[in-house]
Design goal:
Layout: E1 4-9, H1 23-32, E2 35-40, H2 48-57, E3 61-65, H3 79-86, E4 91-100, H4 109-125, E5 129-134, H5 137-146, E6 154-156, H6 163-171, E7 174-178, H7 188-196, E8 202-204, H8 226-237, H9 241-255
Parallel strand pairs: 1-2, 2-3, 3-4, 4-5, 5-6, 6-7, 7-8
Helix pairs in contact: 3-4, 8-9
């Protein structure tokens, strides 16, 4: 089988209390399940150096730098700081960034500005964006268009929106990434979107330690479980796991050209 890539995980957030050898065990488990590489994603400035450290230790782990839209920061990241952090060969992306109106309410101007800062940093570095959007699809697409996010490219990570939103993102050159949510029985609408997103625009991820896919839903999530996400998408599309693995891995390297 073609090896898989977990395009979005948070290795710094994993509970390693049952892993005798820490992340070594997690990496080994992933390899046993056919997951050869992974992108460890930053969500705030307090953990970004740990994310980069992990990527420096493991040859098959890459890093991103950025601040999640819901993260409370004592100091907002500016373009110059993100450029400094991204000046590292193991850093291949900016983010995750975006908008989240589910967890945050009221005046979202600060979130909009944070998003715009990340888009500008992405354009200046030439490293693509990792975008999170939740209950904010219209404003997310609008800001992407206004700020020229198409110049940077990127991925709509952990995608849960409708096909119209996916299409608008793909028109800007973005990829659509599916997490363990796509394996949930009640995610009927998302199943239909996964069927329609073309293979040449598809990525797979775990978002571990969150959103564990079936058959381990409700238990801790790990990068190796990317396999179950890919298997479910293959079933939805009526194709082989190899086809999903080959396409998604090819797409990863097309998007993250610094990898």
């Amino acid at each position: 089988m073609t090896m898989l890539i977990d395009s979005h995980c948070h290795l710094d957030r994993l509970d390693l209390s049952r892993a005798e050898n820490g992340l070594d065990d997690v990496i080994a488990q992933a390899a046993e399940l056919g997951v050869e590489k992974m992108l460890c994603v930053s969500i705030d400035m307090s953990n970004v150096h740990e994310v980069k450290r992990i990527a420096s230790v493991y040859d098959n782990v890459y890093a991103s730098v950025g601040t999640h839209p819901t993260a409370e920061e004592s100091q907002e990241p500016d373009v110059e700081h993100l450029l400094e952090l991204a000046n590292d060969p193991k850093v291949i992306a900016i983010g995750e960034t975006g908008l989240d109106y589910f967890h945050c309410k009221g005046d979202m101007g600060w979130q909009h500005e944070r998003f715009r800062v990340h888009i500008e940093a992405s354009k200046q570095t030439g490293k693509p964006l990792i975008i999170h959007t939740r209950e904010a699809k219209e404003d997310t697409i609008r800001i992407m268009q206004e700020e020229g996010a198409a110049q940077a490219g990127g991925v709509m990570h952990c995608f849960v929106e409708d096909m119209d939103t996916a299409t608008k993102a793909m028109e800007m050159g973005f990829y659509i990434s599916f997490s363990g949510i796509v394996t949930f029985k009640n995610a009927k609408d998302l199943h239909e979107v996964a069927k329609q997103v073309p293979l040449e625009r598809l990525l797979v991820e775990t978002d571990s330690p969150y959103l564990t896919p079936v058959p381990y839903r409700g238990k801790p999530n790990f990068p190796g479980y990317t396999r179950y996400v890919a298997e479910y998408i293959a079933e939805l599309k009526g194709i082989s796991l190899d086809e999903v693995a080959e396409a998604s891995s090819h797409n990863f390297y097309q998007l993250f050209s610094h990898a």
